[in-house]
Amino acid sequence: MKCNVDAGKTLLVDGPASIDIVSGEVEVLAAPMKVGTRIIVREGKRIPLEVKSNASFEIMLGEGASYEEVEGSTIPENWIKTAKEIVSEASLKLGFVAAVMGEVDSGKTSFCTYLANTAIKEKLKVGIIDGDLGQSDIGPPSTIGYSILKGHIKDLFDVNAEDAYFIGLTSPGAATKEVIGGLCKLKEKVMMEEVELVVVNTDGWVEGEDAASYKLRLVDALKPDAVVGIQQSDELLHILNGIGGAKVYIIDSPSAIKKRDREKRKILRELSYKKYLRGGKVQSFLINWINLEGTLLGKGIQPSKERMRQIENLLGVKPWYCEETQKTILIVLGRGKWVAEENIRKLEENIKKRIKIFREGEETGLLVSLKDINGKFLGIGVLQGIDYKRRAIKIYTPVKEGIHTVHIGQVKLDKEGKEIGICTIFTN
Question: How many domains does the chain fold into?
Fold first, then answer.
């Protein structure tokens, strides 16, 4: 359908939809859009097209999609002022770091995009680090990714990750140390690119004492020059008031920001999994030939026959596979097998080691990260199973070569790439 919009208005489009710009002067979050540009809006996303001169569009709407015209710009005045001030400071100092905070659906990603486009207009070299595990745009979900921008952007999802740090979870609560460490490592890599501005998008966990402690530790480790807090009322003050050593900006969460429920956020993650798994095939790797991370598997030795008899007698069932390290015995049972908790405690008391038990096949569907020999992120895959007798691991992934390290995460996907929960069978 054709849509004509007068200058001074904004066209808000909720996906899934595609928009062709037929005529006029249009911007998306400060990025100028050329006539003939096609914009794809994902399900669960909203794109604001700010019309600078009378414009016409061809719009195709998918199921549940919609659009509306609103008067004026949806960009708050304090966004414009803050972005200009940060860009001005960044033009005077190489490697100026701006960290952006806010709760879920507050507009963090939109502001990061707006700030980056504002800087690019001023000919600054910009790097973006996406630290939002659950709604990551640069890199797949459960990772922290970065990119050095080559030009204006309308959606961070269109930007390819130049490198990423795998966490293996879509929420930072159980992995705050790993998230902070990953952000700092990626910051060092971005700094080596001699950028004028580094924009760091953080996750939406801000409520409560644990979240505040985590965010303050993140700021202390990352040492940004500026922290931008996006809030509707005063939901970030318990964090922002504790920040020292960085200039703090408080800006509004726009009324036009689309609020998404948990299911919509899950759908967005699943679209991202599909993007990064597209074109994959099942590959097999001998455990002795690769480095495994995130699991005790492959770290120990197979017990002697005498030790195996002792384990079997105390457990009351014959293990399918067994590995022993200095502190732990990893036991894999056959499908459908079961062991009483009392027998597990008895084994731990006799052997004086921690016992970790799971069943063959429970590992299927776990999300994994693949790295090369230098630790560079190559992509993701899905664990298809482990042949414990051959000591081989099968992974579905589009990564074709250079795989040296496989890091097993805790997110589990079904055959269609949909999340089915968190699985901790391999965690320490």
Answer: 3
